[in-house]
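Worked Example 4.2. Consider the chain below.
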Amino acid sequence: MEPGRGDRAVVLLSGGIDSSTTLAVAVNDGFETYALSFDYGQRHRCELDAATSVAKLLGAKRHLVLAFDLTRIGGSALTAELEVPKDRTPGEIGAGVPVTYVPARNTIFLSFALAWAESLGAFDVFIGANAVDYSGYPDCRPEFIEAFEEMAALATRCGVGGHRVRIKAPLIDMSKAEIIRLGARLGVDYSLTRSCYDPTAEGLACGSCDSCLLRKKGFAESGIEDPTGYSNSRGP
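Applying the procedure from the previous section yields the following structure tokens:
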């Protein structure tokens, strides 16, 4: 384990709008960034190519992709043979926990990020969790982020040694439009990002899943042109 380096940060990077903007925030805050992505059996695996492109664009010191198989657990339309919801209304998207929720995903992801942070001697972990324009996932709430940070202080060598790992969610209270405007100011090329839960074989976004609808809404409200290629060209 390397000695503590307060200028290093691990950033969870899926390749979507929120995580890509979060990486840009960490870079803008002066951190040497270590981007962490996961190949967990997700049906929208093309997001990993997006993550690679974004990490390169924003100058991550290293981009690590960890592979493990959550399809063996299932329980989500992203990891099992379950139908991805389409064309839901904003009220439907915000009501309850959808079938696209992957059981304990952010807990799992943050645990890996915490381990890498300890190995690097980093005291900061960034996650693009958002509690405003999101699909009702319980592990995107501020209470979860705060609780995980408390757990990390108890579960790590650096934590018991008095150096807490900070779990930073800089977008937690922002709308998707605000996030897009922020990322645009920080140099994020959103044409590189991918958000769709059910892309075509050619990699086009379906345009109808919750994630696509939230993406369309965010760009429409931000005043910034949406560079996404949709197989369904309908608006938000």
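Helices lie at 17-28, 47-57, 90-93, 105-120, 142-155, 157-160, 176-185, 210-222. The chain has one domain: 5-222. Compare this with Example 4.1 before moving on.
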